[in-house]
């Protein structure tokens, strides 16, 4: 059942059955004090506005039985998957923090915030880089599930969200980015990153809001039931 959502640069058409909700890196290390975001010198409270709208979208996606994918940026405990070029500009990766070793898998800070904790059966994808397709099995998983469209959310807008949308667009996935479900340590980067996605006729995808998406979803799902 095709659903149409108002978006930029024009309506976004998708079928919930072949669409995945992708929630990027809503990890304590980015959203809470003492982690990676703080170590980079950022005000992590700037990301918190994305949590509530994302909770609503996640609850609806669960109700509809949509595919849900949570990603986490981080590294193996021995950091063998952390490129020296990345470590050189983030020497605190792997160091101790109040929430465990920064950006290391298995540590408390590396995990997803309680408000958006993955439910059993939802896919949790660990990635060593900014993009969700780099050195992961995401493309294989999406193709196996028959996914054609991605509703993309999370943090940060201009880093991991943008990189993932660019990667997905090049692989043929149609991406809707929910602006209120993303966040950045730099409000101006958030704004411009979103504009870049929808510019030039939607050069990377579409940009919309969670309220527009949620308004359209139940109607069409009920009609198709
Ligand atoms: N997840 C993600 O965006 N990783 C980052 O390092 N983001 C920054 O904005 N630094």
UniProtKB/TrEMBL annotation:
It comes from the Bacteria. It comes from Solirubrobacter ginsenosidimutans. It holds the Pfam family Isochorismatase. Residues 19-202 form the Isochorismatase-like domain. Keywords: Hydrolase. This is Cysteine hydrolase. Gene3D superfamilies: Isochorismatase-like. InterPro entries: Isochorismatase-like_dom (IPR000868), Isochorismatase-like_hydrls (IPR050272), Isochorismatase-like_sf (IPR036380). GO terms for molecular function: hydrolase activity.
């Amino acid at each position: 059942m095709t659903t149409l959502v108002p978006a930029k640069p024009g309506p976004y058409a998708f079928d919930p059955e072949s669409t995945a909700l992708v929630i990027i890196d809503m990890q304590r290390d980015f959203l809470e004090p003492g982690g990676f975001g703080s170590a980079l010198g950022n005000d992590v409270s700037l990301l918190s506005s994305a949590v509530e709208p994302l909770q609503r979208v996640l609850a609806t996606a669960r109700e509809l039985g949509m595919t849900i994918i949570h990603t986490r940026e981080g590294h193996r405990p021995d950091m063998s998957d952390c490129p020296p070029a990345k470590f050189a500009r983030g020497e605190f990766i792997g160091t101790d923090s109040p929430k465990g070793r920064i950006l290391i898998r298995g540590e408390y800070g590396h995990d997803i915030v309680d408000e958006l904790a993955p439910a059993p059966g939802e896919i949790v994808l660990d990635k060593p880089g900014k993009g969700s397709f780099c050195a992961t099995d995401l493309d294989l998983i999406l193709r196996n599930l028959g996914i054609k469209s991605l509703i993309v959310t999370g943090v940060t807008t201009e880093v991991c969200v943008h990189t993932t949308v660019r990667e997905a667009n090049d692989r043929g996935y149609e991406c809707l980015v929910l602006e209120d479900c993303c966040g950045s340590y730099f409000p101006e980067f958030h704004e411009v990153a979103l504009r870049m996605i929808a510019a030039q006729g939607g050069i990377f995808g579409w940009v919309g809001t969670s309220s527009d998406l949620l308004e359209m979803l139940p109607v069409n799902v009920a009609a198709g039931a």
